[in-house]
Amino acid sequence: MDWLNLTSETQLEEISQKSFETQLKGILLFKHSTRCSISSMALSRLERKWKLENNIVPAYILNLLQYPSVSSKIAEQFNIQHESPQVLIIKNGKCIYHASHSDITAADIESAIG
Question: Alpha helices of 24-63 — where are they, by DSSP H?
Answer without folding.
Answer: 37-49
